[in-house]
Fold:
Amino acid sequence: RAGTYEFNKTMTVAEIVNKLASGAGRNQNIQQLTIIEGSKVDDMAKQLEQEGIVQDKADFLALCKSGAGFESVTSYLEERGERRYALEGYLFPDTYKVYEGSTNSAIIQLMVNRFNEMLTSDDIERAEELEMSMDEVITMASLIEKEAKRADCTKVSAGCHNRLRGEMPVESDVTVEYVLGVSQINLTREQLDTETPYNAHLNKGLPPGPICNPGIEAVRAALWPDEEYVAENYLYFALKDPGQGELGFSKTYEEHQELVAQYKDLWQAYDEQAANQAAATATAAP
Structure:
């Protein structure tokens, strides 16, 4: 039975079992923790600290950076350049019950275990069929998670697969946002030229690692892209009205530029509104 018990090294297995079965231990408080799809390691650390679940945020981040002790997922990692956090992408977003006083390692282990539970043999076989490592799948899924709503996930996946197959840069803005720690639609030329292995505009292939922790829908989208969009070689996608979140897809650069020109003013207005709201919130904070 759940609780906090005291044992000593002289106790037999039978004595330990009997004590656990008796329910004589102190009850522990349980706190519910909900991690949303697309959360980054940095987001999680901040949330855990704010909710009083972790007392040492720096230790949580250090564990995520090294990945030491979590070989069930770090065994998937590949060398594509230095990554920010070894565990980025492998802390599965879900709702958890966390016992009061849980260590950072125990909390991370919950998420890592859930990641392994969610992967099926079909997922692993499909990755092999695509000749992709699981690290590549999770990295692509993290881009899809940040780029698209559910309805467009498999289409964004098709664009990513087509670009990788054509040995083109993936050109995903969210990789730059990850590096710069910003959240905006209309990135400047200077921002897009940021020198980093994560910048999918400057480098071919996938980033060194995931840029967030994707949900299972994004993972499955990475594994099963839209077949029609793959066959017709769609290469470009762009946000339409930011308030709706729908994406527009194009086969050629010229079509893509027309789409960008049509919605660029809406992007700028959306970014300005978001910046003003953030400034107002910061001013109102105690």
Observations:
- The chain has a mean pLDDT of 93.
